[in-house]
Amino acid sequence: MTSKARLLLLFIILAVKGTGQTDFATEQLLSIATTEEEIYKKIVEDPDFYNDVDLERRINELVQSYRAYLIDNPKDVNALILYGKLLRRVGERDQAFTAFLKADELDPKIAVVKQQIGTHLAEEGRGKAALPFYLQATDFEPDVAIYHFGLGQLLYRYRDEFISEKLFTRDALDREMMKAFRKAASLEPDNFDFQMRLGEAYYDQNSPDWKAALLHWKKMRDNLDEGIDFEIINLHYARVLGKLGRAQEAREICQTVVHPKLQKSKQQVLSEITLH
Question: Which of 104, 106, 226, 233 is the most buried (most CB within 10 A)?
């Protein structure tokens, strides 16, 4: 949990005082959440800080603390969310799902709850069931990039099912997928993973707009210093140049890719350019 996330958590927990929750319960939940934050902060700073036995003991204590708290405060949505997230983190996915379903029953308009339910359903192979939850998450909090990114990933992963079930035509699905990835990338322009996935999504389309793809990769090139990431982008840039019939330019860009780990990918791009 980042400092920003902790401040948000504190704000949320303190806000529930107006809903009938006691100061004692508020402080109790904040104490549990702070303990959890400190444990994972230590792990980030030093992965070997806890041995396996000590870490398991501390996590079990956290789980029991949330359970004891929820016995006394069974309608605390914030506690259910925190508890569910902890359970997912330690691999207790089914129990986490139960916690999120309970939170959704208590308050059906929380984006992160919709996202977590959708994620569980998607992991269970239930893409059609997951879709409305992802859509609701983006509706409830349209300025949160990860919800749009998750929607794009869902549309890509289950595209064959969605098309066969006639939820989308192929063109409509491609449009919605690109819209989701584009929104995520625009909300977090400095997120390299989001920018990469947007660029790669052009390859996933039935009728890609290669000119738009080229502009995207060029923008990424212009914002990077030399290094392996820059060379990875160059390979994508060259690949799209090849798609546009600009083979000579594409080959020249490929020659700038010298990192040993990228030589296989470089040859694949060169072979693809030759085929075009």
Answer: 233
pLDDT band of residue 6 (cuts 50, 70, 90) is: very low
| Ordered DSSP codes for the chain | --HHHHHHHHHHHHHGGGGT--HHHHHHHHHHHHHHHHHHHHHHH-TTSS-HHHHHHHHHHHHHHHHHHHHH-TT-HHHHHHHHHHHHHTT-HHHHHHHHHHHHHH-TT-HHHHHHHHHHHHHTT-HHHHHHHHHHHHHH-TT-HHHHHHHHHHHHHTHHHHHHTTSS-HHHHHHHHHHHHHHHHHH-TT-HHHHHHHHHHGGGSSS--HHHHHHHHHHHHHT--SSHHHHHHHHHHHHHHHHTT-HHHHHHHHTT---GGGHHHHHHHHHHHHH-
Q: Is the dihedral of CA 147, 152, 153, 158 positive or negative?
A: positive
Q: Is pTM beyond 0.85 here?
A: yes
> Do 236 and 256 contact (CB within 8 A), yes or no?
no
CA torsion angle for 151, 154, 159, 162 (degrees, to 10)? -80
CA distances from 42 to 49, 62, 73, 84, 126 (A): 7, 15, 29, 21, 36
